[in-house]
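[09:14] KT: can someone run the structure on this one? pasting the chain below
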Amino acid sequence: MTSTRLAVIDTGQVNERILNKDEYRADFRKVEGASLKRKTHLSSPHAKRLFARCFYSFQASMYFISELGRVKLDHEVVERIEQNIRESLDAATAEINTAIDQAEALLKHHNIDVLASYDTVPLQVEIGITSSFGRRYFDLMHKLDVVMPMMETLAIEEIINERELETRRSMYKRAVLHISTRARNLWMGVRRRMNERDARLAAEAAKPKSAGPRPSATGEKDGAAIVESSIAPLAVSSSGEDTSGDVGAGVPLGADTAPAELQEPAGQDQETVRAAA
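[09:31] RB: done, structure tokens below
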């Protein structure tokens, strides 16, 4: 219904109010990936508001997890998070599909052929899908938009009561909203781990490198001990004093110093490998 003399019908003002809400606007400036352009067609007010509130926020979270997370974290960690989101999408899609099948069965059982429709203008905007996660979330939003008028029709025909309508409607909306919330929480966890890694590397880089100047001084002392030890046998022949203890005192010092100098580069190489991984 586009017009009637008995009521003033919406001509797009509802969609403008939804799109103009600042709290629905996600920060997408750091998302640099390519996107597949699609056009929405959402009629129910519940699907409209969930789409405006969650879709771009969900896509931004998944982009940061998949792209930025792989730069600083192990790929296995990121893949486990992505698998978790896939399972959530599968569960929500199965729940909405089951709801559609049950509603169709009730409508067919009661010989209802015409569904209730919304008098507001459908939300039709071009959006960009940046990943397979975004594509599946896009499809889930439109499945939610399919089941909502079916539930409204069942309530109007008194096949279900208003309480059951509200219960089921809230349940389906929570299933869709939960995915966006979960993705945002997982991204916050990934960002925390990335910050912890950066702080750890910065702390290791700020440590004083005491192994640098010491080898030269130690080397001079060792050299002096070795020179003295080489001169000592000549003194023994003349003075009869035993200076073999000086030779033993100099050699272990040099032997202890050399391994200490070789340990630090090995640790640095391991840290570089972790950073590359």
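[09:33] KT: thanks! Helices lie at 13-19, 45-72, 75-109, 132-156, 162-206, 214-239, 244-276.
[09:34] RB: yep, looked fine to me
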